[in-house]
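Input record (one chain):
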Amino acid sequence: MSGTRQQQAFGLSELYCPPSVTELDVVAVHGLNGDALATWTSDESKICWLNHATLLPKFLPKARVLTWGYNANVTSTQGRTTSSDRILQHAQTLVAQLTADREALAYSQSRTAAKVAHLRTIFTCTYGILFFGTPHHGSSKARLLSSLQKVVSLGVPRKFLQTESSLVRALEDDCETLQNIADQFAPLMKHFRIFFFWEQERTDLKYTKDYIVDETSAAPMLDDTERSGIAAGHRGMCKFESKDSPGFRTVIVALKRKGPEGAETG
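The corresponding structure, as predicted from the sequence alone:
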C-alpha cells in the first residue's frame, strides 16, 4: 500500500443521481478531521453506503445524494493542510454552495428580498437533519485532541506544521462558540425533523478505550426530536457495509420519515 494520502475533496460532490425523477436531496457533511468520502466509507470493504447500489440508492431510489467536504483538519500531518476558517465560515460556505447547486439545477425561487431570497430557500427546503455523534454540549475528548496538537507541534519544525486549534476549541466543554450555536439553533429546530444518534461502543485510543462523544452530548433529550444509539464506535457509526450493519435500517427509516411529506422514497 502506498504511503501517499488520497487527495481530499472539498466542496459539493454528487455521489448518486436518480435516473428519472429526483424528489429530495440527501447532503452528507463530515465532522472534525473528517473527509467527504472516507467518513462514510468502510475501512475494510471500502464500501461507501451513500452511493453503493445495494444501500442508500436502493432504499431511497428517488433521492439525489451529495457529500460536502471542507477543511476540518486539526493538523497538517500526512500531507494535509489546515484552514483558518471556523464553524461559522464553514457554515456560510456550505449554504453558498448548496444555493449555487440549486440554482444550477433551476430549483431556486425568490421568496423574500432579492439579496437574501436565495439563502432562505435552503432554510425553507430543508426538511430533516440527522446528527451522528455530534457534540451538542461539548466533548471532553476535544481537550485530548488539543493536547495532542501541542505534542505534535513539539516534534515537528514549525515551518512544516500548522496547527489550527479553533475548530477543536469550539468543541470543548462550555465553549462559548458552541453554546452560541446551540442557542441560535434551538428556536429553529421546530422547523426541522431532528434525529440524534450516539455511539454505543468505545473508540480505541491506543492507550485506552473511551467514548468520543457521550450519549447526553450527542443526543440531548429535546421535545419533538428522535434519538437512537448505533452499535459502533465514533468513527464506525456512520460507515455501513450492508443493510444488516448496526444502525443502517434505523438511519434509512429516519431519512424516509424526515423527507418531504408525501415524497415517494422507495
